[in-house]
């Protein structure tokens, strides 16, 4: 039976994945600013929360599990999207007229382009169709972050003589120092796609999750602490503080750890308050949190269903269904972002459930 602790973290992950989907819908600026301050750090903190110190005794087993849970699904689904890429053009879900807000569009792939992307997918966890698999960077970032955390922890305390919170605290300090150099001098980790900045943040937040698990029972959960956490996030959204983007500033070294931690604590406190209730809504949230993979993979393609409704209702050019990630129109921020959020969360779960039933039916024969 699941424990209250596991249920509360499932609810936290559900909130984070729903916020991630909402953040991709081009909703109101204040909403997207608020979401991007903490929604991705929450996933890394949650991953670190469940890390076990005994993994230091079997690092290869930990790394193998990470590859199985992150590398394999990312590669498999990336290849699926790669094979379907030109088909999306044939049926109109992608086109060369509309693209993203920055004006870029995607194009059908030649055989050479497709083969190069296949090589990139397998060797670098990159080269996936960025228009319909735009969230796939998370798989690479979490894989690299968790394995590097393990390596650093093993090097610092392979005999586990230190107190459990000391090695991850040292790791946080090392990563912050390296990130400061990286930002200050424009350094890039050339063998990691996108330069490694998200992996740096990922290691830091993973380590913070480990530290939080150690001190969890000592952190006060008074009502006013939640007000403080929410207040920090509101100020950050108003001041346009940054999330885990690809062009960080030095000020982000001070603000992102704070907003990431505040967001996680706010969600976890709310989740623990809800965990004692047995309601359909709570069970749905727990289910969402335990099944984030199909949402990560399929939410952008499922946005097309909401886009079709919006285009038909507003009377827009049908080619706008090729917009990335959603239809670029004022009505999106004015309310249709809610429809996209529902479609991006519910439809992937329905598709995943249908695939599971098909597999079960085949095995039962």
Q: List the total number of helices.
A: 13
Specify the overall morphology: globular
- Number of domains as seen in the coordinates: 1
Please trace the helix and strand order, writing H or E for each element: HHHHHHHHHHHHH
The whole-angstrom Rg is 21 Å
The residue-averaged pLDDT reads 94
Describe the structure in your own words.
There is one protein chain. With 365 residues, this protein is mostly helical. It has one domain. The protein contains 13 helices and no strands. The protein has helices at residues 4-23, 29-36, 39-49, 59-91, 111-124, 137-157, 166-185, 197-215, 223-238, 252-274, 280-290, 292-314, 330-364. α12 crosses α13 (330-364).
Question: Characteristics of this structure?
Answer:
single chain; 365 residues; mainly alpha; 13 helices; 70% helix
Fold topology:
Elements: H1 4-23, H2 29-36, H3 39-49, H4 59-91, H5 111-124, H6 137-157, H7 166-185, H8 197-215, H9 223-238, H10 252-274, H11 280-290, H12 292-314, H13 330-364
Helix pairs in contact: 1-2, 1-3, 1-10, 1-11, 1-12, 1-13, 2-9, 3-8, 3-10, 4-5, 4-6, 6-7, 6-8, 7-8, 9-10, 12-13
Explain briefly what this protein structure is.
The protein has 365 residues and is an all-alpha fold. It has one domain (4-364). 70% of the residues lie in helices and 0% in strands.
